[in-house]
Each structure stands twice: as structure tokens, then as C-alpha cells.
Write a structure and sequence with these properties.
Largest sheet: 4 strands, mixed
Strand content: 25-35%
CATH class of the largest domain: Alpha Beta
Distance between the termini: 23 Å
Number of helices: 3
């Protein structure tokens, strides 16, 4: 078995691509890495068919995608088999504080910053109710130390 060192990508299934794109682009401001150009020829459409009409963003050295194939009205539930939540690493508590203020300005509900011992977290949900978290290691607690 190969030893993996990081995640390559995560892709979420969403009900409404435009709504989800607006949310993720407003909240995270991630650059688009890949999407089907509006004027794509048939060969390009075939080559990018794995996108299912969605979009992929760059997050550091990894990718994060939205796949718009969920039925309208479907809602995420972390108590079913599958994803519990998705957590994004940020640099510091100060960055979490700035983000909490930004979420307030955007009208995105959140649970406030929580101290969980090893780190601080900020939890909120996307338009499909997918549980999201921002995670900042405490400076005196090295990440993943033995």
C-alpha cells in the first residue's frame, strides 16, 4: 500500500451549483482551478465530463470541488453514512476572528469560535447544510505531534 502524505481533493455534491458557488466564493475566495468553458468544443466537453457541470477550486496544494447532481431539496445530514464535516486549516486564532466578523457581515450563521484544547475552531454550514469548520492550531500545540 502506498504511504499517502496529504489529500489530493475533496468534492461535495450540491443541489444548486450557482447558489453553492456564490457561497464558497464569497466565504473562502478560492481561485477556480478547473471548470468547463462556456464555449468548449465537444472534445473538451468530453474530456471534462467528470466535472458534471461543476467547478474545482485550488486550496493550497489540494483541490476542492462542487458537483451539482443532488436532487433539489436534498439536505446534508452528518448523522448518515458518509461525510461528518469538512474542516479547512487556517493560520491563527486572529484569522478565525477575522473570518467570524466576515461571516457576520455576509449573514452566514456560525457557532462562534470554540477552544477545543489543541486548537480553536469556527463552525458553520453551507447552503446544502454541509457542516464546515475552520481550524487553527494553538501556537503552543504543534500540529499532529506524537
Amino acid at each position: 500500500m502506498p504511504l499517502t502524505t496529504a489529500y489530493s481533493h475533496v468534492r461535495l455534491t450540491v443541489t444548486d451549483l450557482e447558489r453553492s458557488r456564490a457561497f464558497y466564493e464569497r466565504v473562502f475566495g478560492m481561485p477556480v482551478a478547473l471548470e468547463l468553458p462556456a464555449d468548449a468544443d465537444e472534445a473538451t466537453r468530453e474530456q471534462l465530463s467528470f466535472l458534471f457541470g461543476g467547478v474545482i477550486y485550488r486550496v493550497g496544494s489540494a483541490l476542492f470541488g462542487l458537483r451539482p447532481v443532488a436532487p433539489a431539496g436534498d439536505r446534508f445530514d452528518e448523522n448518515r453514512v458518509g461525510l461528518d464535516h469538512l474542516s479547512f486549516l487556517v493560520e491563527s486564532l486572529a484569522e478565525l476572528e477575522d473570518t467570524a466578523r466576515s461571516l457576520d457581515e455576509l449573514g452566514v450563521e456560525h457557532a462562534g469560535i470554540k477552544d477545543i484544547g489543541l486548537a480553536h475552531i469556527l463552525e458553520f454550514r453551507d447552503p446544502d447544510n454541509i457542516a464546515l469548520e475552520l481550524y487553527a492550531w494553538k501556537p503552543d500545540r504543534p500540529a499532529y505531534s506524537n
